[in-house]
Every structure is written in structure tokens, then in C-alpha cells.
Design brief:
A seven-stranded parallel sheet has the order 3-2-1-4-5-6-7, with helices on both faces. It is globular, with a radius of gyration of 18 Å. The chain contains seven helices and seven strands, in the order βαβαβαβαβαβααβ. Helices cover 41% and strands 16% of the residues. It is α/β, with parallel strands linked by helices. α1 (15-26) links the parallel β1 and β2 (30-35).
Length: 262
Amino acid sequence: MSKQPWALILGASSGFGEAAALELARAGMNIFGVHLDPKDRLPHADEIREKIRALGREAQFFNVNASDDEYRSETVEAIRQRLATEPPGTLRVLLHSLSMAFLKPLAGAEQVIAKKQLEITVDTMAHSLVYWVQDCLRAGLFEWGTRIFAITSAGGSRAIANYGAVCTAKAAIEAHIRQLALELAPAGITANAILAGFADTPSMRLIPGYEKILALARQRNPHRRLTTPEDVARTIAALCHPATYWMTGNTLHVDGGENIAG
């Protein structure tokens, strides 16, 4: 019997993670979703899970802090146990789409980011990818052909007001992707960063002055519209095709041309 394909989505309850969970389910994958939501947001996570099941796929969600070592270990073990039971499964995709940002200046202002806030932002939005990959490898969850993706943004190579900690995290996760691609190539595992165009997501709306940022992005984009999470999710699903095995270590722009325009 062939193994059932599963995707593990870190940040599955909103934005790019939510859209990817649904799109990969449409493409035939079962979904493990990791998210961190307060009680009043849990009904939305339940809705996503039910949509996945309505597509004929399994869905198992974990409402935990993905940056916590103990929770990560427990979640990986739960995933290992599920993949080992009938019908057996394999982890075909790991998508990192976590957001936990402190949006403050790094310097030159009365109120600047604190050491702990900078560390939390970069650890959650970048370093946690490495730790999840390490734990999944130790648990034997990855096989030849597994795809690793991480969501990045233009902030990885630009300076944006009050966005310094996130810019640092995005630059770091792109570097992590390159290194993972190098180190995991002998195992047939690819790793690529998805540089999404500006989208009107819940995390985007937390940025001070986001309306102006989105307006400028819409004006700059050759399509005269913003990127949507569904645009990015469809690309991720396409990149899961076996024929993309030779694409690894890239930062791929999925932005409708937003970043080619001046």
C-alpha cells in the first residue's frame, strides 16, 4: 500500500498558511496544522479543519506555541505516531508561515525594540524552521522528495519603518533555506523560500501604516492588485509536483511582478 501524503503547516490558521492548507488539501494531501490562537479565534481554526475534511482529507490541528521546544517535541511525536498508523502516511511538505513580530524601531527613537522582543521575533519567524526540520529528521518523518517551504517577504532585502526585527527574521530564514537546501540535497529533500508580494493578511494589518504600504504595492504591481494568499498557495501546490525536484535553495518571487517595478 502506498503511503498517504501529508503536509505540515506551521501557522495554519490565517494568511498564507491557511490558504496553503486548503490548497494542498485540494491537491490531495492530508493536513497537520500548527497554530497559536486565543479562545475567541479557535472557531476559525475549526472552520479550516472542517473545510479540509469536506475536501475528503484528514486534518489534525495543534493549538500550541510552535517556538516552544517542549510543544514542538510533543507535536512531532504525535505526527510520527499518526503517520505510523493505518493507513500509513508520509510527510511530503513542511511549510513555515509563522508570525510573531514586535514592530518597533531598532534605534533612533524614544521607544525602541528590547533585546527579548528582537530575539522572540527572529526565533519565531526564522530560527524555528531549523528546529522543526531537525526534529522531523530525528523522528524519521522526511523521505526522498519532501518539500520544505518558508514564507519570506521584501523585508528580507529592504529596510521598512518599524519593521526591522521582521526584516532581520526574513533575511535569516532565506539564509536558513539556502543552508538546508545544501545539507539536505543528498537526501532528496528540497528547500525553497517563497517571497510573497504584499497581501492584506491579519499579520499585515498589524504593521503601523499598513494602508499606505498596501496602496503603494498595488500601484507598483503590474497587475494593479495585491497578492492574495491564494496566489501563493497555488504556487506552493505546483512546486510540490515531482518534476520540481531540481529546484532548491531559491528565494522565489510570487508577487505578480511587484518587485520588478520601480
